[in-house]
Amino acid sequence: MDSLLNLSGCGCLFLGNDRVWMRTKAPCPNGLMHGCRRSGHRFLEVNPEGKVPVIKFDDKWIPDSDVIVGIIEEKYPNPSLSAPPEVSSVGSKIFSSFLKFLKSKDPNDGSEQALLDELKALDEHLKAKGPYVNGGNICAVDLSLAPKLYHLVVALGHFKGWNVPESLTHVHSYMKLLFSRETFEKTKAAKEYVIAGWAPKVNG
């Protein structure tokens, strides 16, 4: 198993996604590197642009989250996490809606309602198809949504005092299911790092 060269605790969303994939794809080697402002000299030697996450596969450093996930799926096909086309876009607009609402300074700009609409759509899908996006088995869409929903809950709760409405019972059950998975528990960023990571975007 490759050693982590620099793994700090900041709440990088894409790092969280890739780390969940690697934990789920046991015995996928844990070669993921992560650098924040405190990144060491060795990290910047192999990754001069400082992009995160970055992983070493076949003596090549790859600094792209989507490419990393694709390689992990190709090299370690079992268990398969591929999402069928009919569910591949479920929840795809939640993150952009969350980001717009988080950064919004105007309570009447419609950003909160846009996020609610996306969460309601997810709730309806889970009601019909749950407990996961593709039914009984976890897939790539779930692993992508897990860190996004976690950041949403932590950041909006802290900066806006906002919570996912209790009426969205299927979304709440889904988040509880995802957040309680061992792979997520072992890879999630601490809440204080998530908050620190979003603070510049909120206060900037």
UniProtKB/TrEMBL annotation:
One GO molecular function term of this record is: glutathione dehydrogenase (ascorbate) activity
The answer to whether the entry has keyword Ribosomal protein is no
Signal peptide region: none
**Catalysed reaction, written as an equation:** L-dehydroascorbate + 2 glutathione = glutathione disulfide + L-ascorbate; RX + glutathione = an S-substituted glutathione + a halide anion + H(+)
Q: Which InterPro entries match?
A: DHAR1/2/3/4, Glutathione-S-Trfase_C_sf, Glutathione_S-Trfase_N, Thioredoxin-like_sf
Q: Which PROSITE patterns match?
A: GST_NTER
Q: Which Pfam families match?
A: GST_N_3 (PF13417)
* Family statement drawn from the similarity comment of this UniProt entry: Belongs to the GST superfamily. DHAR family.
Can you name this protein? Glutathione S-transferase DHAR2
